[in-house]
């Protein structure tokens, strides 16, 4: 067979194949357009439990409305994603439909890095400093910072702290927490993180009666090194409970305050 004939037959075959694929694609699109939504399938990208499948179903029923019985090509997928991502504990949502009539929703929840607790008022922050509310039925097992939290956070608020001081203070607390978590010694020995109204941080150590005042959450490695020097060079030569507080907030200083002063 001459090369020109072979090329012609190949071109014809390719054309017929493409035409067939176009017809098949058109048929699939028409079938998909005529199909209706028969139900919802919810999946989660993590093991957190801030929202449940029932929460998702109830939220869509309330905010989106009826989707079962709606034509698949009419289901507003981007609106569903936006509605679910508007929830404070949801960081990402993907929605899609399949030819079997199901609406699929995959949800990734916002992972808390710290919990802040000021009496009955509390909130979480994630690793970026994003604030979101506590959950009524699920408590994340993360470090708690308690006391007079120096940031005004309205009930149900989500987003960054509303002042420069608040954003910087939370960033400092997060950096401190990461430093403590990276050290086996400090992670194991620090039992409480407490805050004064001015934002100064106090640490309580395992088996120690003193509180260690580190001030604002900055220069943490240097301040912890001074606490280490106190524990090795000062504490062994004093009776247990001799000091009430050990202040390392000032540069290159260790200031010890007795209980009766």
Descriptive terms for the model:
261 residues; alpha/beta; Ubiquitin-like (UB roll); Rossmann fold; 9-stranded mixed β-sheet; 3-stranded mixed β-sheet; 12 strands; elongated
Walk me through the structure:
The N and C termini lie far apart (109 Å). This protein has helices at residues 3-34, 53-63, 77-85, 164-182, 184-189, 220-234, and strands at 39-44, 90-97, 102-109, 112-118, 121-126, 131-133, 143-147, 190-195, 201-205, 211-215, 243-247, 255-258. The chain has two domains: 39-109, membrane protein fhac (Ubiquitin-like (UB roll)), CATH 3.10.20; 112-258, Rossmann fold (3-Layer(aba) Sandwich). The protein has a nine-stranded mixed sheet with strand order 6-5-4-7-8-9-10-11-12. With 261 residues, it is α/β, with parallel strands linked by helices. The chain is elongated. Strand 4 and strand 5 (121-126) form a beta hairpin. The longest helix is centred in the N-terminal third of the chain and has 32 residues, at 3-34.
Helices, strands, pairings?
Elements (H helix, E strand, L loop, with lengths): L2 H32 L4 E6 L8 H11 L13 H9 L4 E8 L4 E8 L2 E7 L2 E6 L4 E3 L9 E5 L16 H19 L1 H6 E6 L5 E5 L5 E5 L4 H15 L8 E5 L7 E4 L3
Parallel strand pairs: 1-3, 4-7, 7-8, 10-11
Antiparallel strand pairs: 2-3, 4-5, 5-6, 8-9, 9-10, 11-12
């Amino acid at each position: 067979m001459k090369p020109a004939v072979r090329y012609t037959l190949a071109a014809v075959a390719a054309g017929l194949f493409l035409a067939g694929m176009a017809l098949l694609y058109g048929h699939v699109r028409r079938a998909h357009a005529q199909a209706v939504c028969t139900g919802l399938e919810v999946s989660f990208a993590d093991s957190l439990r801030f929202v449940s499948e029932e929460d998702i179903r109830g939220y869509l029923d309330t905010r989106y409305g009826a989707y079962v019985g709606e034509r698949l090509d009419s289901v507003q997928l981007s609106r569903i994603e936006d509605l679910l991502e508007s929830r404070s504990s949801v960081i990402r949502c993907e929605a899609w439909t399949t030819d079997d009539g199901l609406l699929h929703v995959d949800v990734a929840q916002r992972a808390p890095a710290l919990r802040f607790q000021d009496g009955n008022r509390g909130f979480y922050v994630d690793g970026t400093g994003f604030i979101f509310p506590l959950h009524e039925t699920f408590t994340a097992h993360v470090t708690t910072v308690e006391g007079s939290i120096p940031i005004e956070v309205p009930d149900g608020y989500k987003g960054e702290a509303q002042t420069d001081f608040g954003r910087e203070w939370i960033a400092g607390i997060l950096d401190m927490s990461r430093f403590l978590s990276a050290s086996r010694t400090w992670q194991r020995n620090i039992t409480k993180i407490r805050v004064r109204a001015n934002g100064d941080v106090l640490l309580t150590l395992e088996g120690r009666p003193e509180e260690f005042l580190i001030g604002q959450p900055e220069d943490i490695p240097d301040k912890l090194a001074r606490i280490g020097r106190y524990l090795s060079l000062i504490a062994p030569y004093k009776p247990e409970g001799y000091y009430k507080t050990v202040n390392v907030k000032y540069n290159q200083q260790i200031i010890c305050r007795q209980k009766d002063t």
